[in-house]
Design brief:
Chain lengths: 156, 272
């Protein structure tokens, strides 16, 4: 086993230091070392989007990024989305629109949707569907998720 | 890289590499993050030199670049088709080429646009036309210790258009059953030159030279395009697998070659 490396990153607006083996994915370190289990593991190969986090404002699959690559970066996970004591409008609209069943895919969808709305607050349905094509859901059939994102846009 | 030889792999966006390491396709002692090398991040265009695209530049930088969408629309098409948005934050054209998959969506566009791969290694630097880069599924001319540094694409000629189209069973996020990348240069009412390249119909991406050359001097009409598409079908050497049969793939080469040529002709007419 290779020696662990110290990684310094800004995690959900806090400067953080953690130890990682060079081969560990960011997803593994988030969940196992940093106990941030809101980010989910689905496929572990880039197809499902359950592990989506933001790196310097852009969405990535944390299962396809090494934790050591987070050095000097700004990482936002689902735990960093809510504002102080209030849910983010996306989280609120997912609840109101019943856009989740088992919930495994939900953190990934919310982080991915935030990545879109931060950039394109008026994205239309077509754009939202295209943007979220890297996120899979086995339960809802997507329509409720898309509706929830479009509803959150109006509230932002 | 040089010291570890076959026991070292380059990491660009990692969207192929991390999966390959997990399934133990490569067993390595060292992974070198090439994103830390300045030349690998270069993206520059000039009318005299054309485009230099560093091997670690991710897809989103490619399709957000104004020069690329205006001058090399086929490359723009490829970059916006690879994976979903999460993948495009990390995956790049360089990784797509270095990975040398027969189904790679960027390689036909690179071939159609006349790109060269710039390589550096322990024995020095060399450049290889992209159509000679891949040697088999997942295999390329890169020797142990060698890195792909960048790709160079010559400046577009006047009245040049390019397009990449693929067929996949879903709307997005899938591996091409067939992909076709083309470029066309017009001269008044005739075709000055054309290049056609195919994905997923052989052990490597295929440069269909005869089909492209046949178009030289022809009128840019549906009729010429249909005949070139027939010639492209002859260049395809597909296999039957879970994604498609030989017959379906050859048929698709015809359909997609026709569609991509017509699109590239339209783009060429609009180009300066
Ligand atoms: C969910 C998902 C969807 C995908 N969809 C598509 C798709 O639609 N179309 C498509 O074509 N591909 C697709 N891919 C495959 C992959 O994303 C692309 O091939 C991508 O372009 C690879 O780029 P990368 O920067 O991530 O490469 P990496 O994974 O970093 O590298 C790829 C390979 O090339 C080697 N390498 C990388 N850089 C260099 C270098 N500079 N010198 C020498 N060797 C190097 C690596 O060691 C590795 O073996 C998909 C992958 C996933 C996980
Ligand atoms: S767990 Fe990362 S994409 Fe599925
Ligand atoms: S709610 Fe179960 S996978 Fe989406």
């Amino acid at each position: 086993m290779a020696k662990k490396v110290i990684v310094q990153a800004n995690l959900n607006d806090n400067d953080t230091e953690f130890l990682s083996e060079p081969r560990q994915s960011l997803l593994e370190v988030l969940r196992e070392t940093l106990a941030l289990t809101g980010t989910k593991e689905g496929c572990n190969d880039g197809n499902c989007g359950a592990c989506t986090v933001m790196v310097d404002g852009r969405i990535v699959n944390s299962c396809l990024m090494l934790a050591v690559e987070a050095e000097g970066k700004k990482i936002t996970t689902i735990e960093g989305i809510a504002q102080a004591d209030k849910l983010h409008p996306l989280q609120q609209s997912f609840l109101e629109e019943a856009a989740l069943q088992c919930g495994i895919c939900t953190p990934g969808f919310i982080v991915a949707a935030k990545g879109l709305l931060d950039r394109e607050p008026k994205a239309d349905e077509h754009r939202v569907r295209h943007w979220l094509a890297g996120n899979l859901c086995r339960c809802t059939g997507y329509d409720k998720i898309i509706r929830a994102v479009l509803k959150a846009e109006k509230e932002l | 890289m040089a010291e570890k030889g076959a026991k070292a792999r380059a990491l660009a966006g990692g969207t192929d590499l991390l999966v390959q390491l997990r399934v133990k396709r490569y067993i390595v002692d060292r992974v070198v993050d090439v994103k830390h090398i300045a030349e690998m991040n270069e993206l520059s265009y000039s009318d005299s030199k054309g485009l230099v695209l560093g091997a670690a530049v991710p897809c989103y930088r490619v399709y957000e670049d104004k020069h690329i969408s205006a001058k090399y629309p086929g490359l723009y098409d490829s970059a916006s088709l690879i994976g979903g948005i999460q993948i495009q934050t990390r995956a790049g054209i360089g990784g797509n080429l270095a990975n040398a998959a027969p189904s790679a969506d960027a390689i036909p566009s690179l071939i159609a646009l006349g790109a060269t791969a710039n390589i550096a290694g322990p024995k020095g630097k060399r450049s290889v036309p992209v159509e000679h880069f891949c040697t088999g599924p997942g295999k390329s001319v890169l020797q142990d210790g060698e890195l792909l540094v960048s790709m160079s694409i010559p400046p577009p000629q006047a009245k040049m258009g390019s397009t990449y189209i693929r067929f996949i069973p879903r709307n997005e996020m899938d591996i091409a059953v067939v992909g076709v990348g083309v470029s066309v240069v017009l001269n008044g009412n005739s075709i000055k030159s054309a290049r056609i390249a195919l994905a997923s119909v052989g052990p490597t991406p295929i440069f269909a030279t005869e089909a492209g050359n046949w178009l030289t001097g022809k009128a840019p009409t549906e009729d010429s395009v249909m005949q070139a598409a027939e010639a492209a079908k002859k260049a395809a050497k597909p296999i039957t697998d879970m994604r498609g049969t030989i017959e379906q793939r050859i048929h698709l080469v015809g359909v997609l070659t026709k569609r991509s040529l017509l699109s590239a002709i339209t783009r060429a007419k609009e180009a300066r």
